[in-house]
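Fold this: DNA ligase (ATP)
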Amino acid sequence: MRLPVMPPVAPMLAKSVADIPPSMQYEAKWDGFRAIVFRDGDEVEIGSRTGKPLTRYFPEVVAAVRAQLPPRCVADGEIVIAHGGRLHFEELLERIHPAASRVRTLAERTPASFVVFDLLALGSDSLMDTPQSERRQALLAALRDAAAPVHTAPATTDQALARTWFGQFEGAGLDGVVAKPLDLAYRPGDRAVFKIKHERTADCVIAGYRFHKSGPVIGSLLLGLYDAEDRLQHVGVCAAFSMARRRVLVEELAPLRLDDTSGHPWADWGDESAHTTLRMPGGPSRWSGAKDLSWVPLRPERVCEVAYDHMEGSRFRHTAQFRRWRPDRSPESCTYEQLEEPVSYNLEELLGG
């Protein structure tokens, strides 16, 4: 492979802002696997956000790139799995599997798509120093004949339309809106563009915690919500505390600490089969490897309010942010019913079929 931009390339990133800034290019924030695709004839490499290759996990995307992208190019985008009018991030996670046969089966059962939103090289030319607005025009021209499962990400410079998108797209499983300065060159690894995401709050039961990697202080709090059958489901974690706050939390939660998980709603967390019917922390994961997934059980009696952006199935998609304790709420009142449901939006309308 000999291209004007060679792998690995760290993708340009976004920093959070509270509102949609004016006079920029606006796109949907896709909830998938960020991917920079390098094609030189039949040679295709898919680089992840961390630089590790994703090529072997998405054979159908490799085939689509060979069929739909220009013969020599470098494209930045998102690998997504979409059906039923919305994105399905959890089905992407299933692809990271060591068995090639399993990957092939999933590629046939739930094929992925590649949504392209930037062009870093075309032919023998690098576009890294080209302004965003010109890269967008080059992308539209280069992919004008592309068809599913390769898509050019819709974009606009109309701030009012971007606000409409921000309200609509969440119903299709998208993450918010990204704003890009029109004169911006591509800056690998820099948070040079802006993301605007939804934030909501929920009252959750604190049912345990994990220690911080630095020592015996709180690393993250384990959050639970009760389902319709009154089972406490693990919905995620909240973290990002100061070191001083981590130390205080250990003392604050000490009266609730249990010596073991006996009698705890997540007592069977070490049993792989138990995770098929109840969401618990510490389940087996291809992503965790040798990571210590042990946790400290607490009596599920304390409630806190957390901020979250959106749900993925029955859990928070990203780490939640601690807001405050809620001594006025009983644990039993912390149910899924309190969560706001986004208005449905059919993803096919966005991708054009």
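The helical segments are 59-68, 89-93, 100-109, 132-142, 159-168, 243-253, 347-351. Residues 132-142 form the longest helix (11 residues).
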